[in-house]
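new request in #modeling-help
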Amino acid sequence: MKNPIKLEYYLAALIVITLLNTFLGEKFSSTTLVSVLIAITVTYKGFIVIDHFMELKGANKNLRFLMRLYFVIFPSLIIVSAFY
Amino acid sequence: MKSHPIKNSLGIFPKSWSEEHAGRIPGNIPIWVGILSELTEFGIFFAAYFIAKFYYPDTFAQGPQSLHTSLGVTNTIVLLSSSYFMAKAMAFIRVDNKIKCERYLWFALSCGVLYLIIKTWEFHWNTLQGFSANTNEFFTVYYYMTFNHFIHVGWASCAILWVIFRLRRGAYSSTEHSGLEALAVYWHMIDLMWILIFPLLYVLR
């Protein structure tokens, strides 16, 4: 089994980011900066799951591209919606 | 009759999409057709959210404050953990360790069931607070998204049970585990959708 410890690190990172996002949302009222930070972290979380849990890194490049594109488009809309 | 040398392919995609050119397809092609269909479905949900938020910004700014954030956070951690357990199950079937593979599948299933219990409690809690799908536009979108996601977790949990049954019957090994891998990528897709749903409904004001 390759890199047996790595998955644990990724899980820890995902949980920390989730808690950080919640803290940002709870403590700071709607600001563009908070929305941008949340959008970036959502993209990062998506990329981690796609590459390391779904194991698309090193697998089919088209599927990986489509999945990652999804996690660029919708977080971008979060940023756009901050300017409503 | 001459057989076609198409392996793990429906033969309907361009050559550049073939495994030889683009790389290995985890699971099988039918599950990816399903996954891409689900992504489209959830994409429509997300589009509906952003359109509704554009027209009702105040409702969507107040909406998350009415929700039980702790339950949303807990469910996020539960689903992330389930994805981790599923990835571990895949790692163990690759080394033919079926006992540990099954153990991690049970862990993943437990997370799925825990998610369903927490979500049911959250729906009940909303009802006690007087919230329903008809309360306002935010709650319409909230129930539209989360109940659909709830159903996906439900049937994917049933699929984990099926895969455990198949694993016990000796259907999977280090050389042949495409069925297990197909479930794994589907499960991760469900987790990915929650990664997007959570900030939209619980965090962003």
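bot summary: Confidence is low (pLDDT under 50) at residues 1-6 of chain B.
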